[in-house]
Structures are given as C-alpha cells and as structure tokens.
C-alpha cells in the first residue's frame, strides 16, 4: 500500500514522532511522511506513533491507497525530501 | 479525482497560496489541503498556485488519486480541518 501521513503535534513530541515515522517512511516536507509499506510494518508504525501522541492536543492523518498504482505524485519547485529530516 | 496538496513556501507567499487553495479545496492541517475536485477546477487551481510560487524557494506537492474510492483517510486525535484556515 502507499501511505501519506501528516501530523500536527505539540513541539515537545515532534522529534519522537518524526523518528518513528522515519523508520518506516520517507520524509517529504514539513510534517509529511510518505512511502510504500506493507500491512505489518504500517500497523507497527501506527502503534508506535499513536502511543506517543496526546489525542487531546495532537492529530495524525493517514491517507491510505491500497494499490500504489492508483496514486500519482507531482512536484513543483524544490524537492525538499531529498534532504534529511532533522530528527 | 481526489487531491491532496502540501506546500512549503516562503512565509511572504503563504497567505496568497492558502487563499487560492481554499477556493477549490478544504484545509486539513498545517500546510495541507485536500478534496474531491474535477479536472477543470484542479487545473485552474494549479495554474493560480504555480503563478504565485518561486520555484527556486518554494515547493508544492500534488498527490492525485483519479478515483476517490481508491483512497481512505483515517484521523487520530483532534480533527483540525473543522476549524478554518487563517487566510
């Protein structure tokens, strides 16, 4: 499956969240990670991330496309993800 | 089609970009807009946004899923998009 994850979390938890997402996906820009992932690692990733966030303050959005062929990505301007996430 | 747009633009252009995206899509969180849109309005939206950005400094990512049934969205925590974008 192809997954895009965007997060809006308290800055105290950004580093932890970023580290966990980075283990499974690729950092794209700002608070966006994405990548092709199988079900098992995706569930592990979700469990890890969801154990860190405070659901009253933070939010995580998952966009899931089962068949990666069904999603097309186009980039205009600088591709930021070629550099690394700070965390 | 279902479109997710994420942007990383110089703060001087954020307001303008946000206004243009808001005319066609829904603000989700941080620098993410999304929504179901037909080809014509999507092309108009792209033209407007791409006429504002500086391609040497800014970046716009388009994720396009032709059939909205092929994408699933899950939210954990606070749903930010229910409030309005500042612009």
UniProtKB/TrEMBL annotation, chains A, B:
Q: Could you give a single Gene Ontology term from the biological process aspect?
A: defense response to virus
- What Gene Ontology terms describe what this protein does at the molecular function level? hydrolase activity; metal ion binding; RNA endonuclease activity
Q: Which Gene3D superfamilies match?
A: 3.30.70.240
- UniProt: Mg(2+) binding residues: 8
EC number(s) per entry = 3.1.-.-
Tell whether Metal-binding is among the UniProt keywords: yes
InterPro entries, A to Z:
CRISPR_associated_Cas2, Virulence_VapD/CRISPR_Cas2
Keywords linked to the UniProt accession = Antiviral defense, Endonuclease, Hydrolase, Magnesium, Metal-binding, Nuclease
Q: How does it assemble?
A: Homodimer, forms a heterotetramer with a Cas1 homodimer.
Identification of the protein by name: CRISPR-associated endoribonuclease Cas2
Organism of this sequence: Oikeobacillus pervagus
Highest classification ranks of the organism: Bacteria, Bacillati, Bacillota, Bacilli, Bacillales
- What gene is behind this protein? cas2
